[in-house]
Structures are given as C-alpha cells and as structure tokens.
Amino acid sequence: MTRKPLWSGLALVGALRARVSGGLAREASGVSIDTRTLQPGDMFLAIKGETRDGHEFVRTAFEKGASAAVIDEAHAPELSGAGPLFVVRDVQQSLESLGQRARERSAAFIVAVTGSVGKTSTKEMIRLMLSRFGDTHASAASYNNQWGVPLTLARMPAESRYGVFELGMNHAGEIAALVAQVRPHVAVVTRIAPVHLEYFGSIEKIADAKAEIFPALDGGVAIINRDDGFYERLAAAAAPTAGHVFSFGETEGADARLLSYETVDEGALVEAEIFERRLRFRIGAPGKHVAMNALAALLVGAVFDVDLEEAAGAFAEFKPPTGRGQREKISTRDGAFTLIDESYNANPTSMRAALQLLGGAATGPGGRRIAVLGDMLELGPQAAELHAELAPDLIDAKVDLLFTSGPLMSRLSYAAPDTMRAAHRATPLELEEAVLAAIRPGDVVMVKGSNGSRMSRIVSALKDAFADEMAN
Q: Do 200 and 206 meet the contact criterion of CB atoms below 8 Å apart?
C-alpha cells in the first residue's frame, strides 16, 4: 500500500536547514532513526546514540529503500554517492528543527502526558479514545525522550486532528525542553512516585520536575491526579499558565471521580462521574490504576468536547502495552497458566499496583499466585528499604510463591514470610530454571522489575520453554 507523502523534498531543505548532496529527494513518506524498522520511502536520520552512530547505517537505510538520509557535515565525504543526502551541522538539532516545523504547520489539538507511572498506558488510552473522533497521531511505544519527542513531532501528518505525546525525564530541566517543542493545549500528570530518586534526592524534586510541563500551556488545561499527595503542589505550579486545572481520582471533589471498580473477565467494569455526568463503561484490562488512566483520558475528551459515552466505549478495546501488564495464557502438556508481563519497568508505586493486580487475578483449579520480581533501580540511598517495605503488599496480594533476582530484591526476599519465599538468585538468567520448574497448570505468574534488571528474559524463557514443550 502506497503511503501519502509526509514531507516534500523542498520543505525538508528548509526545515532541516540542510544542503543537498546526491540529488534532491522528491519526498519522504515517513521519518526513521532505526534501519530495523525503516519502511521504503522513509527519510533516515543518522542520530548518534549511546552505543552506535547512525552514520554507520546510512548505506543500509538506502538498501532498504530510504528516500533520503540526514547526515552530519563531518560524514559527508565518506557517504558521498550513497543516495540523496541532507547534510547538516548536527543531526539531533535538525531533528528538533523538523519537529518544530511539524508543530508550526499543524492545526491539531495537542495533548502531552507525563508522570512517574502510567504515562504510556494513559497516552494509549487517549489515543484510542480520540481516534474515534478524528485522525490521531501519537508517540510510538515509549518515545518520550530527546529523540522520541521530536521524532514523533516530525512524523505527525499535517492533517492530524489530534496529537498525543508522552514526555519522560531522568533529570531536572528535561521536561521543560521537551514541552517547549510540543506546546500542548492539554497537559496531563498521571501520578508522582519515587522514581529516579538517585538523580533527584527527594520526591518533592521529582514533583517539581514533572511540573515543568505546565509553563508551556499558555492558557491551556492542566489535568492532575487528585489522589496524589502532591496534587496541591502541582495545581499551584499549573495555576500561573493554565486556563483551567481539572482533576481525576477517587477523592471527593475530583472533576472525574471513580465511583466503583470491579474486575470482570480479565477486564474491568467502571462507574465514574465526569463533571457530574455518570458513566458506566468497560476497560479491556484490569487494575484500578488502569481505571484512573481512563478517567484522565475522559477529562481530555471533555476538554475537546467529544461525546463522552462514545469516548468511554473505546476503552473496551484497550490492551496494555508490551511489558506493562499484558496477560497471556501459556499452554503446557498438562494444562495452562496465566502470565502477566510487567517486565518493562518498576518503582515502588507501580510494583504495588502490579501486586494488587496479581492479588485480584483468578487462579485455575489448584493454581497459585506467583510473583517473580527483579530490582527496582535508580532509587538512591533508600533503595534497600523501599524493596523491603513491599513485604506487606505481598501478603495483601495473597502471593503463594516469591521468586526474586538481584541484590536489592534480596532485601524483600528476607522480609517476606518463610512460607512464601521460593528462590532468590543474583540474576534473571540464574533464576529461570527455578521458576520454570515451579510452574503448574492454573498458576498466575507475574513478572516485574526495572528495565535494567532484565526480567524480560524470564518472560521470554517462560514463553519459549513451553512453546518448545508443546511442539515436541
């Protein structure tokens, strides 16, 4: 299927502030920084990453059908003749310039989402909802950093009605730089949690860093979690530039208020009140934290004056993004067990939400609730204590078996009841065998840890091992 042109060659010359080498590309139907996912017709930007330099892959990009490539001046001699080139002083700066031009030409209603937890899921729920009312462009996966945000802008079609952007950060000042590019009409803060404490030193500083999303509003709307302990701090930060500050949560007085929640058939049934209008709707994934994300999304819908009944109906189609609560039935020779993949990331708040999810999951006959947990990283001096403090949550979640990996999770293993403790190993690779040996039909197995703890290895091992068993 032929894709519509996203950028003309002439528009790219100006937007990138480039000189042309090897002939002017007529157009680009997409923008890529990764040859593994590049589609024919895409323009490739040779971004220099932490471990590899995109200039190494320019010729590969042309072999895969790239319409053009954007390269640094320093690499122009060696890449001469590779194909149509836009030669610039700095590829990263040119990507940001292209994103800026995309934002300038767009008449879309723009939403920006940040927070310590729930950013990607909330962004996906907003995207799913707004797609019912017009062409909606949104960040892919978790494209929320200094590359992902301008890339998402650069990919936004000029005719988009809505744009939904996720903004992430590890240090103070990063949200401010990203939101200046996005310039949203609506800014959503999901929740403040002890994430990246290693870099901030206190949760108050994390809240202030997330509040950097508000100064760009220029009379727009701020949407904040009313249940959050930092609600007042965030609302005060939003007040000088937001035309309105709306809230969501269970707290009385929230503009979008959760009235009831029930887990049903691997999903949820929710009753809520949005600006005094009562709605009852289904979500295609369980978890009260997911319901909170839906409330934030519905406030966005209300701001854009969409039909809220139809908007809420979209959530029945919601499925968690990869590594953020995906459920899968894994068949074995003797039956099946349920795998909950939460391996993308972890912090104390999201870990508690995941354990609550596990506690609410129905096991099969003879089945058990099994938690397989890896280290929560970047928590600073309080890290060991924050891990040990999860022991009561394991008990509340009715966990039968606890498997842990990593030096920090050893503290939780020690703090957990003896009857629950199954195995602790230094690495996920060393833990795999013990987990595989323990699983039986009817079990519900939840795997979670920070991305750097590599707990996705165990998810892959579980899928692969039983796929091989069924094949033989």
A: yes
Question: What is the Cβ-side half-sphere exposure of residue 192, based on CA atoms within 13 angstroms?
Answer: 23
Structural domain that includes position 378: 326-471
**Per-residue tokens: 403:** 């498997």
- Which element (helix H / strand E) includes 59? helix 58-63
> How large is the average pLDDT for residues 449-466?
95
- Taking each continuous run of H as one helix and of E as one strand, the counts in the chain are 18, 22
Pair (122, 86) in one structural domain: no
Same domain, 420 and 279: no
Q: Are 20 and 165 within one domain?
A: no
- This prediction has a pTM of 0.94
Q: Quick one: CA torsion of 326, 332, 336, 340, rounded to 10 degrees?
A: -20
Instruction: Note whether 376 and 247 are same-domain residues.
Output: no
CATH of the domain at 123: 3.40.1190.10
Token representation of residue 203: 């949760």
Which residues face 132 on adjacent strands?
A: none
- Among 238, 21, 259, 22, which Cα is nearest to 112's? 238
Residue 95 lies in a domain: no
Arithmetic mean of pLDDT, 386-410 = 98
Encode pLDDT of 151-193 as tens digits: 999 999 999 999 999 999 999 999 999 999 999 999 999 999 9
Burial class (CB in 10 A: 0-12, 13-18, 19+), 152: buried
- Whether residues 291 and 182 fall in one domain: yes
Which class for 36: exposed (0-12), middle (13-18), buried (19 or more C-beta within 10 A)? exposed
Q: What is the 3-state secondary structure (H, E, C) of 195-262?
A: CCHHHHCCHHHHHHHHHHHCCCCCCCEEEEECCCCCHHHHHHHHCCCCCEEEEEECCCCCCEEEEEEE
What are the beta bridge partners of residue 87?
19, 71
Residue 249 near residue 267 (C-beta atoms within 8 A) = no
Is the same domain home to 304 and 345? no
Tell me whether residue 96 is in a domain: no
Contacts of 467 (CB under 8 A, 6+ apart): none
404 contacts 453 by C-beta, under 8 angstroms: no
Q: Are 116 and 199 in contact (CB under 8 A)?
A: no
Do 120 and 242 fall into the same domain?
A: yes
Domain count for the chain: 3
438: in domain: yes
Tokens 């068993």: give the residue: 469
Which domain CATH number covers 13?
Answer: 3.40.1390.10
Question: What is the per-residue pLDDT across 337-386, written as a single tens digit (0 to 9) for each?
Answer: 999 999 999 999 999 999 999 999 999 999 999 999 999 999 999 999 99
Cβ atoms of 189 and 381 closer than 8 Å: no
The structure tokens 């953020």 sit at 324
Q: What are phi and psi of 381, to 5 degrees?
A: -60, -25
How many residues in total does the chain contain? 472
Using DSSP's 3-state secondary structure scheme, residue 260 falls into: strand
Residues 290 and 330 in one domain: no
